[in-house]
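User: Please predict the structure of the protein below. I'd like the answer in structure-token form so I can feed it into my own downstream comparison script.

Assistant: Understood. Taking the following sequence of 462 residues as input:
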Amino acid sequence: MPVPVSEVTSTIAVHNPRQIHIRRARLACEAGPEAGQSWQVDGDVIRIGALKTGDVVLTDNTVSRRHAEILRTSGGIVLRDLGSTNGTFVGPVKIKEVFLAPETRFKVGRTELVFTLDDEVIDVAPSQLDHFEGLVGASMAMREVFGILERIAPTDLTVLITGETGTGKELASQAVHSRSPRVGGPFVVFDCGAAPDNLIESELFGHQRGAFTGAVDSRPGVFEQAQGGTIFLDEIGELPLDLQPKLLRVLEQREVRRIGGRGTKGVDVRVVAATNRDLREEVDAGRFREDLYYRLAVVELQLPSLRSRLTDLPLLTTHLLRRAPHNRGVVGLSDPVRAIFEAYHWPGNVRELNNVIERALPFCDGRTIAIDALPQSLRAAAAQRAKAAPQAPIAAAAEAGAAMAELPFKDAKDQLIEAFEREYLLDLLDRHDGNVSKAARAAHMDRKSITRLMKKHGITRG
């Protein structure tokens, strides 16, 4: 009877932010030269044979170099003979391909093996740190991400990182590499959405001289370049459908064939992929192969959007200012800019925040970023939100502004914004009966931001 997908070997699923479920497989040798030996395998393909680079290496002289494999499919766990000389048997039946149930016994050559599931549930506590390699954040969402990364980085498991554009997927992939035993090897990045469709296959797998017009020299692909290290396949959801089976073969067989080449070359790489698409939806729509999705999503990790962790803004801002080039002493944000940042939707996430900060720095005169230094688009968005807000606080702020005509422009502007913030908050809280949570949702702001502004302006509930 086929094994349900939920029990497929060696998949890690993040059931909740504090726990990961590791599904492993174990093969035990019951008869043959390796009798009494067992192998625990985390990979999603288990290669069995005499070949030294396999997952289960057997010295039985009736076993072929590439004898059989166990792999995950959408329907269950499959045992597949690879054209061996002496065959693969389940009971007395010689098989080409069969679904495996737990505790299934089978023979390769004269060696008898037993397949079992070896699942493990690991509690993952949120990290106590506010950073992990290049990733920064003290919010619970990010510390839970750090906790999971601490667990999976030292393994060799394939990782699929999901999240909106600008959330730090490449930084997360670099963190996985930096905390792994492969840190001494190369870290190679390939953007599946940037290369022309007619060149992607050559870029991934390489080509031989004369394989096509313009191939004047032989060239290794990125999988060969990443030998012994990690390959990061960015925007994997953009990979053309006709190339997906070829990538799947590399992931399953761990070998590549260059375009125009006759033989294959083994590759020892860890694969980390990333996408801002929902690959499950892409699979349902027929735009992404289900079996490739399962190969990539051995560990699936989602990065939170910036708007869902606005409490990290001060820490992120400080971090980005410290590393910004050409920073002439700017250390923070003015209060009005901080309020604008906290109210903004940040569709480009941390990447957009970084761009805004770097663009503002040349226009800063003091130690903080003022409104005048912000890009016009952000100022316009703030003005549009203010225009859509209730008119009472705007009118009150305008009246306050009329009394400031003799002040320097910058001082008058800051005071006007202070007056607007106070009146806006008073009106907002009044309309929601002092309920801070409801007020925050109505203003599209974080609850803690509302509370901070209330404290700043001496506003109490009720």
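That's the full token string. The mean pLDDT is 84.
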